[in-house]
Records
---
Amino acid sequence: MSATGAPRGKLILAGITFAFLWASASAATKVGLSAVQPMVLFVPRFFLAAAIMLLISHAGMKKSLPRGKEWGRLAIYGLFNVSLYLGIYVVGMKGTSAGLGALATATNPVFISLLSAVWLRKPLKPLTILSLLLCLAGIGVAAWPLLADSYATPIGLSLVLTSMIAYSIGAIYFSASHLGSLHIFTVNGWQTLFGALFLLPVMIWEYDPAQNLFNLTWLLSSLWLVGPVSMVAVLLWLFLLKDNPVKASFWLFLCPVFGFGISAVLMREPLSFFTLAGVALVIGGLCLVQLRRK
């Protein structure tokens, strides 16, 4: 039995399902981008996901609305965690393979550890620096053949990595924003809504009818990103965190593996020794971060 009393088998199933769904976001994004523009794919998704979570929070669970300074904090969190992170990410994915997108997403704990040290003005520990170097090296090794075969571009990969920095800043801000009194559906719902509102003018400004096909591909991609990814995967993650935060983070190691596997099946992206070596280096970097936390 676990710390919360959940059966071990249930935790394992939850962890594997979370890693698969979280990793599938990159492939679903690439599929959706074949039909519509980046903002057209993500902004409506944010509004839909926000509406569902806010209905659950306020209409279903009768949770109270944010108060006073909480509104501003939620807006700032939404700016970093949705507008900048996912806004930059979806644009970068136009020039990045689905597998590399999943691999880059798995490095978030490393960027968070690095920026936390800078934010709190603490000396950078050698393990943190080494873990970052290993992760960056892993992404570079995995990207090498994909760049050569036009499955990815330097600009696209740079944007995806930049989005990870925005996410890390948002995560650190959230940890210091005193929003813990609000229910998780309330926080996620309002920050997602604010993030969508910030990106709405961008979507309207760059909208080109000729570049958007609202077909079955777009619909299935959007529904997958809203349901299994934005809601089911997040709930599973919270379930795992509640049981044991350190053990929960180890499920992130499976995300690059699932990511490249899904990409190879759905997107026909090539797998090679470089892929294996890159994933191994990133997992090594993540292990160092987790060992330091433990």
---
Amino acid sequence: MAIAKAERLMNLALCLLGTRRPLSKRELRQSIEAYLEAGSDDSFNRMFERDKDDLRELGLVIETVESLDGEVGYLARRDSNRLPPITLDAEEAAALGLAAKVWQQARLAGAASGALQKLRAAGLPEDVDPYEAHSALEPRIPVHEAAFEPLMLACRDRRPVVFDYRKANAAQPESRHVEPWALECWRGHWYLAGFDRDRGAERVFRLSRITGKVRSRGARFTAPVPDVVTVRETVASWAGETADRSALIRLRTGAGYPLRAKATVVRELGDGWEELQIPYGHGLDAWLVEFGPDVVVLEPAELRADVVDRLRAVAKG
């Protein structure tokens, strides 16, 4: 279905770009096979209006022209839809090369490399090598979750999805119906931010906890999509980056160095243990569980209870 729609949009764009005069709906319907197969005029009109809106959202400038006899026609002038020449300086080319290197371990590696090759053909300066190493650091964003690619495409196309999700404190996964907004990487883990239809509110999902396949749904979004900054703030909060309180934990000596880096107070207890005061925000319980028996939560009581629930869920398998 996705391929058929993409082909239909491409054919409509070619018709609008290739004409020298406005084409009416009737002429467009006769020129595009998918429109000829529409069951009724109402079905065709709905399909055409959706396709026209999708092309405009993709950036195609479509003009609506009314003729002397009152008939409405459509066209996309080439001069209005022609991209300006690509001009990149050395710093911009280096930034693009760095971005391409980031994705070399992911499924996007081929797309990133292909994009740079197209930029080279479009006028990237010959004396600039976008793959040249400009520092001793080799950036990598590992993507091992099978859910990454279908969710990335769903975010791009704004298509609702359904997947099975297992919370850290749950023994079994449950189905979630989500309108995906964006994917964000925090502390080496990928998160999906979106609107949970079943709960009627925004939610953040860690990709490593998605089980099975991600299934797409053809319906449109029902909730507004926030801007990128707001989405990142939401992910940061759910991933434990935003703290408004403090927690007191016991940490085994020589373990949990990431926790030590966050600590505001460290006190020796003896017998191989230390007491740490660390910032406490949403997601801290999931982080503490990763350190297993090296961490004991002292307070607050609700954090201790959350950690115990998560450990019990892990023990149940």
---
Amino acid sequence: MSLRQMQYFVTVVEEASFTRAAELLHVTQPALSHQIKALERAVGGPLLERLPRGVRLTAMGRAFLPHAERSVRSAAQARRAARAAAGAQGGELHIATVHAIAVGILPDVFARWRAVHPGVALVLHEYATTEALEDQIERGTADLAVGPPPARWSGPVVPVGAEDIVLVVPFDDPLAGRASVRLQELADRFWVRCAMEAVVEGRPFLDWACARAGFTPRTAVRTEHTSTAVRMAAAGVGVATAPAHVVRGAVGEDCALLTVDPAWRRELAVFSRVPLTGAAAAFTDLLADARSSGEAPPMSPERPRADCDATVQVMP
């Protein structure tokens, strides 16, 4: 079997049509069908079921697809890495992350990149959860990922700083004049929950944290995105948790921010399936420099001692 045959197969599956796949691949439909049949002979059985309208994967096709996707994307990644290694000029750098990091941290970093490396285009892939992010990087969707360090990862993982997780309340909230609050003080409050909330020890983060504080959070509303949860909290719907950079950078400071005592922080890293070279290495260095030089100062005049900080994986 050849890489081209696997590329043809992946395209047919993505388009669910031989006709549309042939148009995208700039080949004739008979030539495409011939290559798919040759691939099926090499594999030893049918990968696709031809239907009157479209195609459907067979059991063999479902088993074969992720490996074919990985091979095709790894080849594209190898081409990008080779071109970028020649002075970090030309081609594209594909970066994957979760929504909160995409809107809160990366815009300024992307702007710096464009100023320093105008010859390398950036392509951003956004995902709702860290689980989806790790899965897509494993499949070779992007050259590198920016997010919380994976618990189990065989490739390189480079720390690039940390982010503060804060509580969001409206300006007229009784707690708005304070810099920090203990979680127990919010036992009678309603909360705005986000679908992107991470899981800690098998439980949604807020359930886990509040249980440790001795209460169960009461949910006022559930949202899909962190930025929406912040807007809801600013309007007085309930208390929300969010990375500080999302509130400052993407939403604006039309609400009050409180740190939790002890503080909530989340480590951030760049990780990849392959060694970070060329443009990928240059972007990682730029991100690390930006995080070390551009992080906001502590929101509390007296930051809790380091041994009191709670370093946990919280909202993506």
---
Amino acid sequence: MAIAKAERLMNLALCLLGTGRPLTKRELRSSIEAYLEAGSEDSFNRMFERDKDDLRELGLVIETVENFEGEVGYHARRDRNRLPDVSLDAEEAAALQLAAKVWQQARLAGAASGALQKLRAAGMPDSEAGAGSYDALEPRIPAREAAFEPLMLACRDRRPVVFAYRKSNSAKAERRQVEPWILECWRGHWYLAGWDRDRRAERVFRLSRITGPVRSRVGEYTAEVPEQVRVRETTERWAGEGATTESALIRLRRGCGYPLRARATRVRELGDGWEELEIPYGHGLDAWLAEFGPDVVVLEPAELRADIVDRLRAVAKG
């Protein structure tokens, strides 16, 4: 029924836009097959009035004109229903072209390319033109993960999803029920922010750790979607990279753990191939440090050390 109504609205819009003069109800009914099948005159009138109101809500400007014989006609003038010319500066055009590159490995790559071609034909500046000596540098935002497209659609349609997710310190994937909010690319990886129904808390998931298919579920969201979701700040906080007032003291084997050294606020040589580092202490730091295995030893705080020991024991048990 939804498809039939959409087709009927499209036919009515084409009739109103394609005529050079106002058309009466009688003329419209004889031109559109769905109206001929309406049955009684009352049924047609109710259907036509609903369709006319729906088209106006969609933005179509429909004029009502009375002819010399007193009949009411309807017309949608093209000059009043034409979108304004596209006007983009170089920065806006570059942003659109970069957004289109997100789909370079996705199923909608053709649609994104077609949209860019139409915008260029309408006068959109080409950011690639005049690049000069910089044409060898091209920003790319890959979207190779199979979970990207279904999660993007779920975020758009506000649909809960279910998927298997493997944490960085776990060998097995766990089932997650998530209300997806937003996708964001950070440091070459895509992350999903949303509400974890089982844990009843906000969580961020790295798409490369999602295993198997992403399955949509029917139903409303149970948690309110924040007006602004800062995926990068959340990811940094859970990775222990955000600015915090607390710090952790660790021993790091020389020649290992360069990402830790890059974030260290203090480094001291200990001898015997070890160094002492002071790094910001945030949520999720235990999971990050556990990835370095025997090359890292946590000195303090004690709770961080205990968390890492528990994680490593869990991994050892499988």
